[in-house]
Amino acid sequence: MQKIRTSICSRDASELVTLLADVPYIEVVQHAETANKIDTDSVEILLASPDLASQIVERCNNMKWLQSTWAGNAPLLKLSKRNYILTAVKNIFTAQMREYVFTYILHHFRKVEAMKSATDWQAVLPQYLANRTLGIMGAGSIAASLLPVAQAFSMKVIGLNRSGNEHPGYQSMYILEDKQTFAAHCDAIVNLLPDTPLTYHAIDGDFLSAMKPGGVLINAGRGEAIDEAALLHSLQHDKPALAVLDVFRQEPLPTTHPFWRHPKTIITHHTAAISDTTKVAECFIDNAKRYLNGEPLQYQLDFDQGY
């Protein structure tokens, strides 16, 4: 039987080896938790996290296919090497992301912090989601998973993506050039845009100044999408009233960064959705079979578009 000769470079390498051990058409020839322990000359197929893979791919002269263990692959897309197939993992984060997004939308509008700090019977009146507008930046599978929840809360949903093409479940769809109009309609905004040159600082001073005061901004996409200096300035004007930030231009976020102590930010630690090693292995197993059969691979990335 023909086998996929696989190198693994991941902090979960040992667990991935175990999960792949009984797959007859996958042979793990080497595995390591750090990039410097991989013999790059032996790499044909690489199963790896992008931050580690980016340290070695340009020396992997025989590599034909790289299966990423992440949904986002900015560390690889920024490199010049492109003569290989790059596939991501998708559709394994939707449940986690749904919970993350609506945890903080409800946290904001139901006035959780104000109620927590109340010390008398002066009523803190919550706000409701019904008839409010949720704006979603990005129109992939995670964005689609938010739609039924928003609809259950009787929210209106508008979207923003590269093409502006209509998608089921959205009242309207905007393009980046119309981002201020998009922002002006939203009570809550969720950024899920990929990291590409076109999305760099999509959330800038103009975008933020167009927001309704009192809203919430959630960034669960990519850190480069937000102009952090502009956001710090705009928070002074209640645009937004709360910024929930999971991703940043620099990670780990430096301990001296003003976001940590700002009264209108909630900082999470790039934990909105965490890779499930079992599901990553399942994705690779499926794609390995497709690779052997000469079939198109699932979730192949376009290097130019960045997703």
Describe the secondary structure blueprint for this structure.
Blueprint: E1 4-9, H1 13-20, E2 26-32, E3 45-48, H2 50-53, E4 65-68, H3 74-77, E5 85-87, H4 94-109, H5 112-117, E6 133-137, H6 141-152, E7 156-160, E8 172-174, H7 179-184, E9 188-191, H8 205-210, E10 216-219, H9 228-235, E11 242-245, E12 265-267, H10 277-292
Parallel strand pairs: 1-2, 1-3, 3-4, 4-5, 6-7, 6-9, 7-8, 9-10, 10-11, 11-12
Domain D-isomer specific 2-hydroxyacid dehydrogenase NAD-binding: 106-272
Keywords: NAD, Oxidoreductase
GO molecular function, one term: NAD binding
SSE arrangement, N to C: EHEEHEHEHHEHEEHEHEHEEH
Instruction: Tell how many strands the DSSP assignment holds.
Output: 12
Taking Cα atoms only, what radius of gyration do you get, to the nearest Å? Answer: 21 Å
CATH architecture annotation name of the largest domain: 3-Layer(aba) Sandwich
Biggest sheet, spatial arrangement of strands: 8-7-6-9-10-11-12
Terminal CA distance reads 33 Å
Provide the residue-averaged pLDDT: 96
* Fraction of helical residues: 25-40%
Give the CATH level 1 class of the largest domain: Alpha Beta
Q: Uncertain segments of ≥5 residues (pLDDT<50)?
A: none
What structural class do you assign from the helix and strand content? alpha/beta
The amount of beta strand, in percent, is: 15-25%
Based on CA inertia axes, which overall geometry fits?
Answer: elongated
| CATH-defined fold name of the largest domain | Rossmann fold
CATH superfamily of the largest domain: NAD(P)-binding Rossmann-like Domain
The biggest beta sheet is recorded as: 7 strands, parallel
Number of helices: 10
Task: Estimate nothing, just give the exact number of structural domains.
Answer: 2
